[in-house]
Design brief:
Layout lengths: L1 H48 L2 H9 L4 H9 L6 H33 L4 E4 L3 E12 L6 H5 L2 E12 L4 E6 L9 E5 L2 E6 L6 H10 L6 E5 L6 H9 L4
Antiparallel strand pairs: 1-2, 2-3, 3-6, 4-5, 5-7
């Protein structure tokens, strides 16, 4: 009887051990399955959200690997906080593209406009150049024409994008009139190096060149199509 009781006890212990092992293994399997399922959807979303060219584009623009992952995995996010995390790099991308476009246009205007320097920011385009006026008798005789003087001064023209109107683009006439684009709006003109001129020339310049003109003509270099310059400028009109 003692022998049978011992066998029965061993059998019960073995059964309990198997049941305990089963209780441990099943949750582990379930947890592994959940983990795998949680990984694969994100991987699929990442693959479907960004192509190789997209990834190369972001990396070339200076985004970190973590930001690229956020950009590509963005559509798979579900919570509001995760969506906000995704939107931030997208906004940064848009801002960078706008800034990059402004720098490209700034380089273009520096090459196209007959000016020493052109600067663009969010509000204005600033053009540093030289402006000249002709001063002398109004008579049409040759003697009067010989007395006409050309007075030049450095100017800095700030044109506000708000209210800017890009008008006529003129191709000009060779040796007579430079190609130009007419701009109207909120304009400020600073006279640079005015004190270096003769007193009478300073008086003429300040009389003829207003510090708050309603319109200006931006001179364009020869070989540049004025209509292309006007087209680029119109993008910034507000």
């Amino acid at each position: 009887m003692a022998f049978l009781s011992k066998l029965q006890s061993q059998a019960q212990s073995s059964l309990l051990l198997k049941m305990s092992s089963k209780n441990i293994v099943l949750p582990m399997l379930a947890l592994s399955a959940v983990s795998i399922l949680s990984i694969f959807p994100n991987s699929i979303a990442l693959a479907n959200s960004c192509s190789k060219s997209d990834i190369d584009y972001y990396l070339q623009r200076g985004f970190t690997n973590a930001q690229v992952v956020q950009l590509c995995a963005g559509p798979a996010q579900t919570s509001g906080q995760q969506t906000q995390t995704y939107q931030a790099p997208a906004v940064q991308t848009q801002q960078y593209q706008q800034q990059n476009q402004a720098r490209e246009d700034e380089s273009y205007f520096n090459a196209a406009l007959n000016a020493e320097n052109v600067v663009i920011n969010n509000e204005i385009i600033s053009v540093l150049s030289e402006e000249c006026i002709k001063h002398g008798p109004d008579s049409g005789s040759q003697a009067a024409a010989d007395l006409i003087e050309k007075i030049c001064v450095g100017t800095k023209i700030n044109i506000n994008f708000s209210g800017m109107v890009v008008g006529k683009a003129s191709k000009g006439f060779f040796l007579v009139k430079d190609p130009s684009v007419n701009i109207k709006g909120n304009i400020q003109r600073d006279l640079i190096g005015l004190n270096q001129l003769r007193r009478q020339d300073r008086e003429i310049i300040t009389e003829k060149l207003s510090k708050s003109p309603t319109s200006v003509s931006l001179k364009i270099r020869r070989g540049i199509d004025p209509s292309n310059v006007a087209l680029r400028l119109r993008k910034y009109a507000k």
